[in-house]
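In this section we walk through a basic example: taking a raw amino acid sequence and producing a predicted 3D structure, encoded as discrete structure tokens. The instruction is simple. Fold the sequence below.
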Amino acid sequence: MTLLSKAVISALLAITSLFILKPLPAPTASDLQTPFTSVYEAYEAPIGIPAPTTSTTLVTPANDLCGQVFDIAKYIGWPDHELGKLVAVAQRESRCTIKAFNPKDPNGGSAGVMQINYFWCKPSRYWPNGYLQAHGLLTDCSELFNLETNLRSALAIYRYSEGWRAWSI
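The resulting token sequence is shown next.
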């Protein structure tokens, strides 16, 4: 790099830093005042707008559901470094839908946001009452449709499996 190009770059950086590092002016009293002094009150419905419906169906976007999965998993105690993967698995398994159920699973179905296989809550040779019941996480497989119970159960399975093996990752 030539001396001239170094000088030009240094001058540009110096001039730019004057504008970037300059502190913003303090707000004035007029900036802090509320811009509106009155409130409009409507007494009649505007013409051309249909009357309100009597029932409403709310659809929660998947990203909001996955945000709930993230928040509750963090609250329950999932490791911080696994939260991103947890949400990705929940998105893949159930689209973060709490009431998701897969009846085609060979062990009686998979339930909830993490699609926990009923194998984990049914009696077996090693767990006469079921693995999740033995650890006090639930009393019946239907409780896997509760988001917190599902995520607590998934954490127990994650720890038992020493990772994500139960979800084929």
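Looking at the output, two observations stand out. Helices lie at 3-20, 29-32, 62-76, 83-94, 131-134, 147-160. The longest strand covers residues 101-102. In the next section we compare this with other chains.
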